Amino acid sequence: MNRRDPERSLSVPLRLLERGPITWSATVPAADLAEADDGDRLRIADVEVPSDSEVDVELTLELISGGLSAAGHITAGWRGPCARCWIPLDGQACANVREVFAATPREGEQYRLHPEHADLAPMVREAILLELPIEAIACPYPDPCPNHPPDLDQATDEHAHDDPAEQPDPRWAPLEALRRGQAESP
Ligand SMILES: [Zn+2]
Fold this sequence. Notes:
This protein has a 5-stranded mixed β-sheet. The termini are far apart. By secondary structure, it is an alpha+beta fold. A hairpin with a 2-residue loop joins strand 3 and strand 4. Helix content is 17%, strand content 34%. It has helices at 121-131, 150-157, 173-184; strands at residues 11-13, 22-29, 42-44, 47-49, 54-64, 67-81, 88-102, 111-112, 117-119. The protein has a domain at 11-131. The structure holds zinc ion.
């Protein structure tokens, strides 16, 4: 097996495989994997791989009867909002793949192998999309998170700190009345 410096391409010339399996280590811009259908972004709903980030691919490629096998892992960073407070969160998508490329691929099971090269991009793209979180993501803060929209949780929290056992000094009552009056007026 040849160890190579990271490539910048997902198009692999098949002649490189003539003498046996190779390791294809590549780092490519996420923008290269985007499709016009998705607004040129690699994303599922609100979670996306930022187009200025990079995707790492580490695959063992081998010619097999009827095509080429690709096995290894793909990693990409994603960004998506917390489902509760909408602050952007970052995460890592790691996909393990084992796929076959064939000249006449079985629909939905294999990828197309071109006469002189293998285009890994469609496989890398699908593998990442499958690993993006589709369930609601939550930030690490306890519920409600500090950035929760104030109109949703402030109503119940506003006087939570008032301790009934600790009555205010009666001399401050007029000032307190004034403060409450201001708070209630629009
Ligand atoms: Zn949050």
